[in-house]
Amino acid sequence: MKPYTIEIHNDGLLVFTINRPEKRNAINYEVMAGLEEALLLAADDQVKMFVVTGAHDQAFCSGGDLSSFHHLKTEEEAYTMLNRMSNLLVSLLFLPKPTVALLNGTAVGGGCELASSCDFRIARTDVKAGFIQGTLNITTGWGGGTILSEKLLPADAMKMLMEARLFDTVDLMEMGFLQSTFSGDPIENCRKFLNRMLVLEVEVLKAYKQLYINKWKYTGVQERIEQEVRNCSVLWQGEAHHRQVAKFLNK
Ligand SMILES: CC[C@@H](C(=O)O)C(=O)SCCNC(=O)CCNC(=O)[C@H](O)C(C)(C)COP(=O)(O)OP(=O)(O)OC[C@H]1O[C@@H](n2cnc3c(N)ncnc32)[C@H](O)[C@@H]1OP(=O)(O)O
């Protein structure tokens, strides 16, 4: 069975679901391939909006699969993996249609980077989310730090990155990381959140999204992300990072 599903609904929602609940929906190479496939399908005219979520109710996404990526030791090895995922986050950021991260559970590390690359983030009231990369002696390696800095006020973005901890939905709403919270069925609530937008023509939605894409192109987001990925790759090869990952895997 594939570790993801892609569904295209009649109302124009494309729903990409990471389906590895036993690993808290951690992202491995197969999930990356799935996201690549979903982004290609999103070009179809019948797709109005792109939704990314996780299977079951424990996790949205726990970031990179630490057991799969633990063997990447050198800067260049790390860069190859980080760069592939950062390209996906850039594609999501620049997708000419609205995108939503539907937080059905915890979002940790790269899971928060994935969520940041979406235009809207909505979460079940009891979930927690945080950029915990600092506790692993790395920074955001998929470009999510740069993307977060485009979405939040500087002090709030820096607080989330530098405190490297999980926040509850009250704090996440206050900082502007979340746009809405819900209890009950995630897809139903996602539809409620998107209700007004879904009735508009896709060309109108695309034209508004283009305003932001133009700005991000003008301010060199992609170049800044490349720098972020490079910086993380350098930290990745350090002994301190590998020690922290081994600690998690051996717990
Ligand atoms: C690599 C890219 C980098 C980036 O650029 O951003 C990152 O993403 S770094 C961040 C990596 N992620 C983490 O450090 C998170 C690690 N996970 C957790 O902290 C917790 O699992 C959780 C997400 C808070 C959920 O906690 P809980 O519900 O208590 O579950 P468990 O901890 O018992 O986990 C169950 C099961 O899943 C495995 N797991 C969880 N996360 C990952 C992961 N990221 N990679 C690989 N495996 C993961 C965990 O090991 C357990 O497995 P088993 O012991 O085999 O049951």
From TrEMBL:
Coiled coil (residue ranges): none
UniProt KW Lyase keyword: yes
Top-rank taxon, per record: Bacteria
PANTHER family: ENOYL-COA HYDRATASE-RELATED, ETHYLMALONYL-COA DECARBOXYLASE
A Pfam family this chain is assigned to: ECH_1
Keywords on record: Cytoplasm, Lyase
Keyword Nucleus: no
Top class in the EC scheme: lyase
Function summary: Decarboxylates ethylmalonyl-CoA, a potentially toxic metabolite, to form butyryl-CoA, suggesting it might be involved in metabolite proofreading. Acts preferentially on (S)-ethylmalonyl-CoA but also has some activity on the (R)-isomer. Also has methylmalonyl-CoA decarboxylase activity at lower level.
Listed PROSITE patterns: ENOYL_COA_HYDRATASE
E.C. number: 4.1.1.94
Primary location: cytoplasm
Protein name (record): Ethylmalonyl-CoA decarboxylase
Catalytic reaction annotation: (S)-methylmalonyl-CoA + H(+) = propanoyl-CoA + CO2; (2S)-ethylmalonyl-CoA + H(+) = butanoyl-CoA + CO2; (2R)-ethylmalonyl-CoA + H(+) = butanoyl-CoA + CO2
CDD domains in the record: crotonase-like (cd06558)
InterPro entries: ClpP/crotonase-like_dom_sf, Enoyl-CoA_hyd/isom_CS, Enoyl-CoA_hydra/iso
Protein's cellular compartments: Cytoplasm, Cytosol
Homology family: Belongs to the enoyl-CoA hydratase/isomerase family.
SUPFAM superfamilies: ClpP/crotonase
